[in-house]
Specification:
- The protein is mainly alpha-helical and 182 residues long.
- It folds into two domains: 47 residues; 117 residues, no CATH class.
- Helix 1 packs across helix 2, helix 3 packs antiparallel against helix 5 and helix 4 packs across helix 5.
- The longest helix is centred in the middle third of the chain and has 27 residues.
- It is elongated, with a radius of gyration of 21 Å.
- The chain starts with 6 loop residues before the first helix and ends with a helix.
């Protein structure tokens, strides 16, 4: 059973999304006065579709945009390092490899936030998520399983939770974290 967001949160999400879609429409269309009416119609349809496909978080999570920017910058840096690491391993055949699986039990419940976490961590050097265990743990195939992969995953999950602020299904975890911090 899915919990519905309060009406005020739904209206706030609709207005925010609608305004964003309208601005994007106007930028793409060139901003002429003739584009306002079709832009309003397109924004209304896009808003309706987005609210149906991704309703507002019922527990009121809100994304922390400064943390998202920091997370994105880190993601780009880690992705480049991952590419260099894989290239180095491919070009240096004597490089020590200890392939194996690491099982990581995330704090995140199955949700959009957890899917985002798996997508992010697929860019960590030498790791790739390869499935979910019946226990809920995520199995990661690693080029060097002797490294502290679980520690790195926990750090990435913590950074993601800070950035999401409870959005995308992470509200329960963020709430638990703030209660334990108090």
């Amino acid at each position: 059973m899915q919990i519905a967001a309060p009406r005020s949160r739904t209206w706030a999400a609709a207005l925010g999304r609608g305004a964003t879609y309208f601005v994007v429409w106007m930028v793409i269309a060139g901003g002429d006065a003739d584009d306002i009416l079709p832009g309003l119609g397109a924004a209304a349809l896009a808003t309706w579709a987005s609210l149906r496909l991704m309703p507002p978080d019922p527990l009121g999570g809100s994304v922390r945009w400064l943390e998202v920017l920091r997370l994105f910058a880190r993601f780009v840096r880690v992705s480049v390092l991952a590419g260099l690491d894989v290239a180095r391993r491919a070009l240096a055949p004597r490089m020590r490899l200890a392939p194996g699986y690491v099982h990581y039990q995330p704090q995140l419940p199955p949700s959009d936030a957890r899917s985002l976490f798996q997508a992010m961590t697929s860019q960590m050097p030498g790791t790739i998520p390869s499935g979910t265990e019946p226990s809920g743990a995520i199995a990661y195939h690693c080029l060097d399983a002797s490294r502290s992969v679980a520690g790195q995953l926990a750090e990435e999950e913590s950074r993601l939770l800070d950035a999401l602020g409870g959005a995308l299904g992470a509200a329960e975890v963020v709430t638990k974290r703030t209660r334990s911090d108090a």
